[in-house]
Write a structure and sequence with these properties.
Radius of gyration: 19 Å
Distance between the termini: 61 Å
Structural class: mainly alpha
Number of strands: 0
Number of helices: 11
């Protein structure tokens, strides 16, 4: 029972982050499932089954708050579903021994990307209002969908920064559109896993626990997206993902690091993570101060 409560809390926390940042529900949840020894394909399948419900509720909430561009949803969501189905069937064909370190390495890469992307760069506002073209969103969706199902997460980490970097869609609509289109990706990935592995290894009580936490958090996150600084949240989440998946890799047969090596690596990660958080907070405060100064009429 305690494990189910923990999973529900993970689902709640992951959806709060995902709904307000546009990423990290799958990466965060899959990382936890791998850490407790779940089969990689089953872990990704469990998360994607739960995401069918969480993304549906999240999408509706974002729509109610005016955070969705439906043209973007269609242009990126359909190719994303194709990529997700292909990725799910690919992961299902790998052995557990081969898939576990591969998935951890992919999650670690995504964690580094999230940490660096949101710590180092601000949100671009160039070209705001210009249309996002299908020739950009189609390949992006295909890649993000494939990465999402093979890594247990990645739709947001690939899709959200790419659209934000274009400067053509305001941040809240980028996050809302990515979250809403993820419903199509979750359905396609779940079908791919059910075709590839059936229901073997999938604990549906875990699915329900993750789903319950995510459904509770989804409308809250859709409201919080207007208030939580993405830069700080991205740095925090990136560090968690890096630390957890580094631990998995160091304990794997690929590396099998000694206790001393693990301690040194963990210490370095903590120092870098703390520095990244401090920098993100400082930069966020500085940008807020500049915005306030810009709104004050000259001569006052």
């Amino acid at each position: 029972m305690r494990q189910l409560v923990l999973l529900a809390l993970v689902g709640l926390g992951a959806q709060l982050v995902d709904g307000s940042l546009g990423m990290a529900y799958g990466v965060t949840s899959t990382t936890l499932l791998l850490a407790i020894g779940t089969n990689p394909a089953a872990a990704s399948a469990t998360v994607h089954l739960a995401e069918i419900g969480t993304t549906l509720v999240s999408g509706l909430a974002h729509w109610r708050f005016g955070n969705v561009d439906w043209k973007v949803v269609a242009k990126i969501g359909i190719p994303g579903a194709v990529g997700a189905f292909a990725g799910a069937t690919f992961l299902s064909s790998l052995s557990t021994e081969a898939a576990a370190p591969v998935m951890s390495l992919l999650l670690l890469t995504l964690g580094v990307y999230i940490l660096v992307r949101f710590t180092t760069f601000g949100i671009s506002r160039h070209n705001l209002g210009k249309p996002l073209r299908k020739r950009f969103l189609g390949p992006l969706g295909l890649l993000a969908g494939f990465v999402d199902s093979t890594g247990g997460g990645g739709w947001g980490p690939v899709g959200t920064p790419a659209i934000l970097a274009s400067g053509r869609l305001e941040p809240r609509k980028t996050i809302g559109s990515i979250d809403t289109s993820e419903f199509l990706v979750a359905v396609a990935a779940s079908l791919g896993f059910l075709v590839g592995i059936g229901s073997a290894g999938i604990d549906f009580t875990w699915v329900l626990a993750l789903l319950l936490g995510g459904v509770i958090a989804a409308p809250i996150a859709a409201w919080l997206v207007r208030h939580i600084p993405p830069r700080v949240l991205g740095s925090a989440v990136g560090g968690i993902i890096i630390l957890t998946n580094t631990r998995t890799l160091l304990r794997s047969d690929w590396v099998d690091a000694s206790d001393t090596v693990r301690f040194v690596v963990y210490a370095v990660i903590y120092v870098v993570w703390a520095a990244a958080l401090a920098y993100s907070i400082r930069q966020y405060r500085a940008s807020r101060a500049e915005e306030r100064e810009a709104t004050v009429p000259s001569g006052q």
